[in-house]
């Protein structure tokens, strides 16, 4: 008679928060995305940056919230930098001087971009500037291939030791909001001449 070794409990991807907390924060990010103006050339994305140990919201952002072709994550970081009286590039140094060292989590409705067609710094690179401070990125959906065929954001972040965690259940709403203002693809039924 062999005795089975009990299996260890499954590895959890949640930290101190409950799944409901993650969904609520993703819903808050979705609310931010709804504030973004619909355009055929952008996704409407929302983001919420929190202090992970307390759940305190530090900054929110949405696509095109700030002047220029700004992304949601970029707006979060720019607004947090402004709160600290520094440029976005100096945010990591300022936060690293705080005691205790903050542990940040970013909730974004769409996987952070690894490439910007505008030539602006991709959101993944902005996140990597805060490496050691941002431990987790929570995403609602991966980036559709409409503008950038191969977004390597998740792989790049995970390669740098930042966990990327999917928060499920809102995908349809996120994609509906993200693509508002986009021209629907033509189908044979809509292009036939009569």
Word description of this protein:
The structure is a single chain. The protein is of the alpha/beta class and 194 residues long. The protein has a single domain (19-143, 162-180), classed as Cytidine Deaminase, domain 2 (3-Layer(aba) Sandwich). Helices cover 30% and strands 16% of the residues. The chain contains 7 helices and 5 strands; from the N terminus they run αββααβαβαβαα. Strands 2-1-3-4-5 form a 5-stranded mixed β-sheet, sandwiched between helices. α4 links the parallel β3 (104-110) and β4 (134-141). It is globular, with a radius of gyration of 19 Å. 34% of the residues are buried. Residues 4-18 and 189-194 have low confidence and may be disordered.
What descriptors fit this protein?
194 residues; alpha/beta; Cytidine Deaminase, domain 2; 7 helices
Topology (elements, then pairings):
Elements: H1 19-34, E1 46-51, E2 56-62, H2 72-83, H3 91-96, E3 104-110, H4 123-128, E4 134-141, H5 153-159, E5 163-166, H6 171-178, H7 188-191
Parallel strand pairs: 3-4, 4-5
Antiparallel strand pairs: 1-2, 1-3
């Amino acid at each position: 008679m062999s005795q089975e070794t009990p299996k260890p409990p499954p590895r959890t991807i949640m930290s101190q928060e409950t799944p409901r907390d993650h969904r609520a924060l993703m819903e808050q990010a979705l609310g931010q995305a709804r504030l973004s103006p619909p355009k055929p050339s952008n996704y409407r994305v929302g983001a919420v940056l929190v202090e992970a140990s307390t759940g305190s919201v530090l900054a929110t952002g949405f696509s095109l919230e700030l002047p220029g072709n700004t992304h949601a994550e970029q707006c979060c970081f720019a607004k947090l930098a402004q709160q600290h009286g520094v440029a976005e590039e100096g945010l990591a140094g300022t936060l690293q001087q705080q005691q205790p060292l903050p542990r940040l989590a970013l909730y974004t409705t769409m996987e952070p971009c690894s490439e910007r067609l505008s030539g602006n710094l991709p959101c993944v690179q902005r996140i990597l500037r805060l490496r050691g401070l941002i431990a987790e990125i929570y995403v609602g959906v991966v980036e559709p291939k409409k503008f950038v065929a191969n977004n390597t954001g998740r792989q790049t972040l995970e390669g740098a030791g930042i966990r990327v965690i999917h928060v499920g259940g809102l995908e349809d709403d996120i994609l509906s909001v993200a693509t508002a203002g986009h021209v629907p693809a033509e189908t044979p039924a809509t292009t036939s001449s009569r």
